[in-house]
Amino acid sequence: MNLNLLIDNITNPALLFFILGILAVKLKSDLAIPDSSSKFISLYLLFAIGFKGGQELAHSDFNFQVSGAIIFGILLSAIVPLYVFFLVKKRLGTENAGAVAAAYGSISAVTFVTAVSYLEILDISFGGHMVATMAFMEAPAIIVGMFLIKQYSVESTTVKTKQVLHHALTNSSVLLILGSLVIGFLASEEHARGIEPFTTDIFKGFLAVFLLDMGIQSGRKLSDFFKTGFSNLYLAIGLPFVNGTLTALISSFFIDSLGDRFLLSILAASASYIAVPAAMRVVAPKSNPGIYLPMALAITFPINISLGFPIYMYILKLVASTS
Prior knowledge:
Low-confidence stretches: none
Structural class: mainly alpha
Number of domains: 1
Number of helices: 17
Number of strands: 0
Order of helices and strands: HHHHHHHHHHHHHHHHH
Shape: globular
Strand content: under 5%
Radius of gyration: 19 Å
Mean pLDDT: 84
CATH topology: Na+/H+ antiporter like fold
């Protein structure tokens, strides 16, 4: 693996702030980001990446590469929950298995935003349609997870399909990212330049502060998570590498852009810790968030941004050099 690439990723300020957050918890520091500030920053990140993606999409041709990436992403989001569910159902039970399956089939918008920042550091371009791909990948996994729970649960659930569909399609992250994408697509270049300092110049600073908060939250959940045993730990480490590596290999057959293939790999490797937990409160109230939430946030998220990024990039470049 390219040593310089690994060093660049390890010394990324965003990652270092994430590690600082974990250390703050371990040192029992009172360092904390106010909830209101954390929510604002998360909304800002989704707005900025959506708006910039819309601007990029406005200058992109809708061709096989674009439609192929979007369709492939949606299929991934629907297929991954199926194999994950049956992989863990016997050990975790139906509702917990459905929640874990939905989490790993869905995506992490924060991981995607961090991956975009990583590509910018490497000066690798990507298509604006990847923002739409990310948004479209969030809902299918939640829907599949819901149907699996309803199908295999001993106790029939009274949750209406319409209720879950509405939640999956209108939760704040999906609505904001899609709305910002459309606005960015419709906005003229002159209007876009008017808010560029807000959407571009301060983006990395806000990302660093947000990841500091994510580090604090992850650190708080680690101790409780390890009480559930090491099986979930191995799963939280293995699933992203399996999903990310397979996507990196398969996507090379129909997508030319290195940046697009990298983002698809990251989306496949990531796990949702915002939209899915909120949905599972409705769909599977008996599921244990102490299992799937730390798996996604405290293990898979840091694994992806520390080791996953350089590994998937190495695989993609290796595939490109041998093709």
